[in-house]
Here is the input.
Amino acid sequence: MKKIKIIFLSLVIGTGAIMLIEGCAATQAIADKSGAALWGENCIRCHNTPSPADFSDAQWETIGMHMRLRASLTKDETSKIVAFLQTGN
Amino acid sequence: MKKPITLLATGLLLMLSNGYSQGTASPDEKETAPKAISDAPGNTKFLLTGAAWADFYYDKDQEVKYNFNSYGFAPVFLWKLSDKLFFEGEMEISDGNFELEFAKLSYSLNKYMTFGVGRMLTPFGAFGERWEPAFVQRFPNSHLKGDDQYIPGENHLDWGAILGIDLRGGIPLGSSKMNYALYVSNGPSLDNTTGMIDYENLNDNNSNKGVGGRIGFLPLSNSSLEIGFSGETGIAGNQEDSVYVMNGEYRDYSKVKATAIAVDLNYAKAIPSIKSIIGIRGQFNSLSVDKADYAMDDSTFYPAFDNTFKNYFVQFSFRPGMSDNAFLKNVELLFRYNSLEAPADAPWGPKDKNGKGGAVTRTDIGLSYWLSWRTGIRLAYESTTLPDDEKSNQLLVRFVMGF
Here is the structure.
């Protein structure tokens, strides 16, 4: 168990170190990703991707906030995805 | 207690530094902001969503071989009160039981951080928060978990809900990304007669709080892979709890601690060249309780044992979702391997032929047919092997509807 704890702690510290090295900023290409790209990349990891027509514009706003919490998305990512889904309606 | 107080103080400080401002988007934010809503008067936006399901099984070894054995309805209530305030709650009514699964109030502190309070799905591993909803799971049932028929009680942290506070969010890291969820909760509660842990500790049994969380790392620029590391630790024993037996011996349980860790992995990728979507997901959990003698009855203590409980699963899925064939594109093929291992010398859990605790393993082969993105029929053939080599096989069917 002690070995598992050491490995676990090392991975967490390693992740933190990478975070510091990278400076907590997105590259321009990542920051410029469209809502459609973010929708396609993020939703599919857990569930099938819904169609924009599945919910109304108002409902997408609510779902966006729900998924921001559930998937720990940033506010910018959430806003882009919601805007894309609303545009498709 | 210093850690919980520090976390709480940090959260409040950030809240204050944010000035409680609502709806004050920066110019950058405005460019990507959702468009103005015209079809819903007022600021509050409510949505009722959730899932319902009905199950059937065939088991040639059971007395009742064919059985419509389970059903459920789990409405989720979502309220967006403003750009910063949000409430989410879920009730589950299944097999005649009614339970409030979670009721959580959240406040967005900034682009990268949200503060939450209430009864919340445990941010420990990925299964409990993300993969547990019936319409998200591809199989008719879950993987082998700590509350399955093999392990009594609520000896699990990898799913279920805690009562407490959390801070969570996502952070860009160059071409990668990470996310975090850190929480303080009532923590674990120890059953000092068996050494089992209950994380559904709604009325805390001691002043110590459980501190834990999950850090997720998405190393690839297309976010197709996520690896998560979770941990929690806290005193589980009852406050000032000493148990005496008839001969005057006593044991102090007030310092007995429970520590849990988990690693989860999730990979999903649409591959146009084979017109398919492949998925790999899995999670490993380990829960360790400090060694202690447990008071089995009024006269004897059960000798201390290595109280470590482990379980894991790995799941593969393949769906030709981009196929031109209307039937094939809705079919998803599934494979899952599960393992659950109770402590070898515990008075509970599955035992081998020598009375020692061992692993229950299960191999699941399944097929899901999707009628919509959240509604479908799931079939699975599951083969279970107990530590004493006893085997059982079941055919499971579930119809699930997300709404």
